[in-house]
Amino acid sequence: MKVLGIETSCDETAAAVVEDGRDVLSSVVSSQVDLHARFGGVVPEIASRAHVELVNPVVAEALVEAGTEVGDLDAVAACHGPGLAGALLVGVSAAKAIALVADVPYVGVNHLEAHLRAAWLEEPDLNPPIAVLVVSGGHTMVVAMDDFDRYRVLGQTVDDAAGEAFDKVARLLGLGYPGGPAIDRVAAEGDPEAVSFPRPMIDDAFGFSFSGLKTAVVNHVRRHPDDDVRDVAASFQEAVVDVLVAKLLAAADECDAKALVVGGGVAANSRLRARLLDVSTETGWPVCLPSLALCTDNAAMIAATGYRRLVEDGPTPLSAGIDPNLPLTAR
Ligand code: KG4
Ligand code: ZN
Asked: SS3 for 84?
């Protein structure tokens, strides 16, 4: 069963063809980073317009790369939330139009569920219970996956998402946008122990909070303007990583996990990945770190999740819309 997936929830226009929920035949991602960089963040209206221009060529490229045609598709999936309303509408409208033309089912996919399940594209034999950390620009949560379609959101951030904190701190440090990769890069040359930043809510079981940490960095930079940016970046990153690792381990305990899984853009962070490998060695819990292209926004995860939802729940009616605040509901 070939599923075309479309992702337009934020600033990446992406399309992919995935067979039977696991074989990625193609995955095309067109990033709008250059369009938004001079504004220091994603401008929703610019994102929507860019998606309108890019969605057809990106879908066409995904079909060509997969060696397939619209007529060969068995379903079309699109991310219908959470995300930017105007941006989501573009992908969902395109997916519905293609589904109508091809006379195949349309499936709406939750972006968070897609990040959660991305790891299975590379590790299809991962078996629940599994503890998953979903860390992106808009969300930060730990999830207990008790079974393949049964998961519990154990906790999430009460304010900023981890990726948002990376982006804001990078901006403050003059490192540009997107901030996560920039901090990752300069932090590699810094001392993670140079500044002792707070580890917010580290003792709270599953909650996260990053806005106080961001303020701590602001205050530190004001007081010590001559500090080496690499040290400040490394120390900030270390504080975030400490919290993320602690919560994932707490989640693993809670659900008696057989393995640890990460997803979302911040899961591409090299320090987080290195620390999780160390933790895996220390604790014996296997850890699955999806390749970087599967951590950041992509449509392969949408197509794979769409396949699963179609098989388990059936098609989404064409009358269904988008939901910018769609939660990851316990199934
Ligand atoms: O999952 P994603 O591509 O989009 C959302 O669903 O939000 O995540 C984007 C976020 C951005 O905040 C970006 O700065 C962050 O992921 N990010 C990183 C890294 N690569 C991307 N954060 C830390 N280290 C990285 N290497
Ligand atoms: Zn995402």
From this structure: coil
Domain borders along the chain are: 2-116+294-313, 126-289
- State the closest ligand 1 atom to the C-alpha of 163, by its place in the atom list counted from 1: 12
- Tell me the average pLDDT across 88-107: 98
**Hey, what amino acid is at 180?**
G
Q: How far is the CA of 137 from the centre of ligand 1 (A)?
A: 5
- With a 6 A CB cut-off, is 105 part of the ligand 1 pocket? no
Q: Which atom of ligand 1 is nearest to the CA of 9?
A: 6
Q: What is the CATH number of domain 126-289?
A: 3.30.420.40
Q: How many angstroms does the Cα of residue 15 sit away from the middle of ligand 1?
A: 19
DSSP string covering 92-135: HHHHHHHHHHHT--EEEEEHHHHHHHGGGGT-TT--SSEEEEEE
Task: Please state the CATH superfamily assignment of the domain spanning residues 2-116+294-313 in this structure.
Answer: ATPase, nucleotide binding domain (3.30.420.40)
The answer, yes or no, to whether any atom of ligand 1 lies below 6 A from the CB of 264, is: yes
How far, in Å, CA of 99 to CA of 192, rounded? 50
2-116+294-313 against 126-289: fold identical: yes
- Strand bridging mode 259-263 / 287-288: parallel
pTM: 0.96
Among the residue ranges 28-42, 100-114, 134-148, the one predicted with the least confidence is 28-42
State which amino acid sits at residue 305: T
Place of tokens 């999740």: 305
